[in-house]
Every structure is written in C-alpha cells, then in structure tokens.
Amino acid sequence: MSLVGHRSVLRFIYFLGVVRWYNLILLVISQYLLAAYILLVKNGSDKKMAFWQFLTDTTVHSMALATVFTVAAIFIINSFYDLDKDWVNKSNMALMSRAIGTGQLANMYIVFNTVGLLFAFYASSKVAIYFILFQFFGWFYSHKMQKIAVLRELSASVLTLAPLLAIWIHFSFEVPQLGWYFVGLMVVLLVKDIMKDLAGDRGNLIFGYRTVSIVAGQEGSKRLACIIAAVALLLVGIAAMQLETVHDVLKITGSGLFLTFLNTTLWQRLKNTAQLKWMLRLQKSVVLFYFGALLALIIYRYVLFFVYDVITP
Fold first, then answer.
1. Based on the domain organization, do 83 and 17 belong to the same domain?
2. Residue 234: pLDDT above 50?
3. Which residue from 163, 228, 243, 169 is spatially nearest to 195, judged by alpha carbons?
4. Dihedral in degrees, nearest 10, Cα atoms 65, 71, 77, 81
5. Does residue 247 sit in helix, strand or coil?
6. Residue that is last in its domain, among 132, 159, 175
7. Is the dihedral of CA 91, 95, 101, 106 positive or negative?
C-alpha cells in the first residue's frame, strides 16, 4: 500500500473514532428495538403482521439512516468546538480531530447534516422538520449550552433521547407506558453525564466549561445524582402501586432506576477519585441494560411466541 493510501486508511479510522461509530450502532439498534416493541404491542396476537410491518416501514428505516448521519454530524461539530479541551481530557480524541483537520471536519459536518436531512425528507415533511430542529439543537449545544451548568447535562441527555423519541412520535405515541421508559432513561443518562463531567473536570475548568461538578463540587455532584435517582425511583414506585397490573415497560424502568440508585449510593461511599471510571462504566452498563431488557422482552413476546406459538402476550 502506498503512503497516500496508508494515510487515507488512517484518516478513515480516525474519522470513525470522531463520530463514535459504536454509539451510532447502539442508537440505531435502540430505534429498531422501540419500533419492534411498539408494533408488537399494537398488533396484539397477530405477530406475523407486526413482523411484516416492521420490515416494510420505510419511514422507520429512513429515520434510522437520518439518525446515523445527523448524530455523526453532532459528534463532528462537538469535537470541532471541544478540540482545545480534549487535549487535556481526551488527548487521543484531539489527536484524531487534528489529524483529520478542522477544515475537513467542517466540510463533513455540512455533508452529513445534508444527507441526514435528505433521508428525513424521504420519510416525511414532519420528520424533516423534527430533524432540522434536532440538528439546530445539536449545534446550539456544542456552541453554547455545554458551557452552562445543569443545562449542559440536561441537553446532552435530551440529544441522546431525541432519535428514540422520534420513533415514538412516528407511531403516534402508541404504548403510552413508554413515557415512563423515556423518563427513566433520561434520569439514567443524566446521572451518567454528571459522572462523565466529573471525570473531565480539569479540561472543563481550564477552558471555562461550567459543569455541575465544577459548580457543586465532587461531593455535591454525588449527592445530586443520588437524589435525582431516588426521586425518580420513588415516582415510578408510586405509579406502579396505582396499577392493578404493572406493565413490562414500567418494570424495566424501575429496575434501571434501582440500579442507578445503587450505583450513586456506592459512589457516595467511595473517596478515591480514581474509582470514578468504574462508577461511570457501571452507569453505562445500566444504559445498556435498558435496551438489553427491551430486547429480551421482544424475544420473549415475539420470537418465542412466533416459534412455539405457546406464549400469550
């Protein structure tokens, strides 16, 4: 391979790192899981119809592609604005961005947003409007909001939820219990972002990024995360007690919030800041649990039923 070809391969690998390809894959899988679950509930006992609608819903497929390009563009613009800070917090990310070049990143940001909008317009005009707002919010977050405490963490969580909410909106809010699922996931993501900001305090402080951890301090951040998880868990528990039959989605939500509460409680007891990385990994595992539990539920309600025809919904 020539030197030029070798450099092109390296740049492509660096670019995959900048757009965080693993996050994109997880996000798209999550969108399809939500779509599959909504169709499963919507069609009741007709599992074959649910499966057929899942395969032929071009709007969902277009939204998934629009999500890939739009979220990749948000990661690009975020790395563009965070280049100086990343030299302190995440030097490998800064090196990848510098190797690609800021001009190239800016061009790719425009291209990816454009392609994302084309897929959104193919889905529908309403989807296109949603993604235009999503793209603007992504730019505004990178440009302004990530330097404001609380708003930074809240907006980062909302940006993660936005593609998933798009699926629920597309299905006209079928399965209203998913509202609790999104509330729980929002809390789980918010706690994760508070932990993540604490791990990057040094660069945030040097370059004027006001985060919850900088404003409230380490102990204050721990208490805030624990209180948020406890209040959310209490609200879900109260909601569950009002129901004769607890919905599967509510069970997933309650389990995820309980794991988050345990994680934040353990975090409060730990004094060694080096252990924060393990707490952050545990919290990321709770995020994966949310989608893994939904996948397990789909397999139980759909795949096993489809194969054995013995499990009732």
1. yes
2. yes
3. 228
4. -170
5. coil
6. 175
7. negative
And the tokens for 36? 């599959």
Please tell me whether residues 217 and 273 are part of one structural domain: yes
Q: How far apart are CA 222 and CA 218, in angstroms?
A: 6
E strands within the chain? none
**What pLDDT is attached to residue 312?**
46
Domain end among 175, 204, 221: 175
Q: Residue 289 has what pLDDT?
A: 93
Which pLDDT score is estimated for 277? 79
- Supply the DSSP symbol for 300: I
What is d(CA 240, CA 158) in angstroms, rounded to the nearest whole number?
25
Range of the domain at 215: 176-313
The least confident of 51-60, 112-121, 241-250 is: 241-250
Question: 169-204 pLDDT, tens per residue?
Answer: 999 888 888 999 999 999 999 999 888 877 666 555
Tell me the per-residue pLDDT of 49-64, one tens digit each, with 9 for 90 and over.
877 888 889 999 999 9
Residues 141 and 193 in one domain: no
How many separate domains does the chain show? 2
| Domain at 281, CATH number | 1.20.120
Q: Are 194 and 222 in contact (CB under 8 A)?
A: no
Prediction pTM value: 0.88
Q: How confident is the model at residue 281 (pLDDT cuts 50, 70, 90)?
A: confident
Tell me how far CA of residue 286 lies from CA of 108, 191, 247, 260, 290, in angstroms. Answer: 32, 11, 20, 7, 6
R_g (Cα) of the chain, nearest Å:
21
What are the structure tokens assigned to 61, written together? 């497929």
* CB hemisphere CA count around 90 (13 angstroms): 15
